[in-house]
């Protein structure tokens, strides 16, 4: 990669890591909120806190994370990526400061909504910047994905470690600081955002794929129709199914693991005998969850490299077929004991994140550069907006059915994505 590539990828690795640090720390807090809060009051009414109700509240924040990606994509095409990335980082830091002073679950919900709005602009801004500014696009996607997975794994791990010493509100406040520092770094970053776009056509004119953007509602409708008139609609189905699977399996994963053999809480005093620990315990499920996410680094890197060597549609079909099998095997493997589950968790985590660089590259293949921000906006509307419903689905299934039913539903989402990718392969 050249100097401009490295400057862009360096900034995006920091920012992407921050986004997913916060995103995947939230499920660890979910298990605490389930134990700490009994009711949530709204407009004078009180509702009991269950996995179903809490799933809906978390889905609201995660939903804005995805829904805001569409207007965020429009803004990227008009304003550029750097300013939006800086605003995203400052906004996420502010929302976690608010989370740190939350007196009740309603205020927690408000802070999560603010986080969702702030974080929503990142993916269309960051991915557009790679697709238009980085000459080695596949490698850029790979490093970008690796950094995201470092945040995905180390964020929950850091949260779990901090919870050994502090209460959850203090931990939320501490976590807010890195985003503010990263925002200051983003403000000072300098690079050419469109260095990789070949704007000069063979006839000396401007390549239409490098122009575009949305200046009005009419243009928004026109560009959207252009995107969805072709195979992009199939890509959109893939990213929706991915989002439903991703959010459905991760939102309550720490809570699901609590009841499995080998995940019993361990008193902290067992590790520091003779020292007063205030009755605090080490929760193994939090570390398994963080480890499963961290091994996704390998999957992200593999998926990114595969996009430079093979058609992404083939990879997507294979990865989601494997995820369907792994979802059905999760509980049977868990019944064999913690050691087989650790090995299985590593495979599951790596496979879960291999798909992301593949579908990100596919979006670039099925959209013009001039509206790349809009296309990634739709992508994360589907993946993190509509996909956020996976958390509500998971909460509802766990409240009114059981974990076996949940993994069956998740396998269904994966089959839909694999089938859609096979359609793209056959379509050519």
From TrEMBL:
<dbReference type="InterPro" id="IPR011701">
    <property type="entry name" value="MFS"/>
</dbReference>
<feature type="transmembrane region" description="Helical">
    <location>
        <begin position="141"/>
        <end position="162"/>
    </location>
</feature>
<dbReference type="Pfam" id="PF07690">
    <property type="entry name" value="MFS_1"/>
</dbReference>
<dbReference type="InterPro" id="IPR020846">
    <property type="entry name" value="MFS_dom"/>
</dbReference>
<feature type="transmembrane region" description="Helical">
    <location>
        <begin position="54"/>
        <end position="76"/>
    </location>
</feature>
<keyword id="KW-0472">Membrane</keyword>
<feature type="transmembrane region" description="Helical">
    <location>
        <begin position="227"/>
        <end position="246"/>
    </location>
</feature>
<feature type="transmembrane region" description="Helical">
    <location>
        <begin position="286"/>
        <end position="302"/>
    </location>
</feature>
<feature type="transmembrane region" description="Helical">
    <location>
        <begin position="12"/>
        <end position="34"/>
    </location>
</feature>
<feature type="domain" description="Major facilitator superfamily (MFS) profile">
    <location>
        <begin position="1"/>
        <end position="428"/>
    </location>
</feature>
<feature type="transmembrane region" description="Helical">
    <location>
        <begin position="314"/>
        <end position="332"/>
    </location>
</feature>
<feature type="transmembrane region" description="Helical">
    <location>
        <begin position="168"/>
        <end position="187"/>
    </location>
</feature>
<dbReference type="InterPro" id="IPR050189">
    <property type="entry name" value="MFS_Efflux_Transporters"/>
</dbReference>
<feature type="transmembrane region" description="Helical">
    <location>
        <begin position="338"/>
        <end position="359"/>
    </location>
</feature>
<feature type="transmembrane region" description="Helical">
    <location>
        <begin position="406"/>
        <end position="425"/>
    </location>
</feature>
<dbReference type="GO" id="GO:0005886">
    <property type="term" value="C:plasma membrane"/>
</dbReference>
<feature type="transmembrane region" description="Helical">
    <location>
        <begin position="107"/>
        <end position="129"/>
    </location>
</feature>
<protein>
    <submittedName>
        <fullName>MFS transporter</fullName>
    </submittedName>
</protein>
<keyword id="KW-0812">Transmembrane</keyword>
<dbReference type="InterPro" id="IPR036259">
    <property type="entry name" value="MFS_trans_sf"/>
</dbReference>
<keyword id="KW-1003">Cell membrane</keyword>
<keyword id="KW-1133">Transmembrane helix</keyword>
<feature type="transmembrane region" description="Helical">
    <location>
        <begin position="83"/>
        <end position="101"/>
    </location>
</feature>
<feature type="transmembrane region" description="Helical">
    <location>
        <begin position="380"/>
        <end position="400"/>
    </location>
</feature>
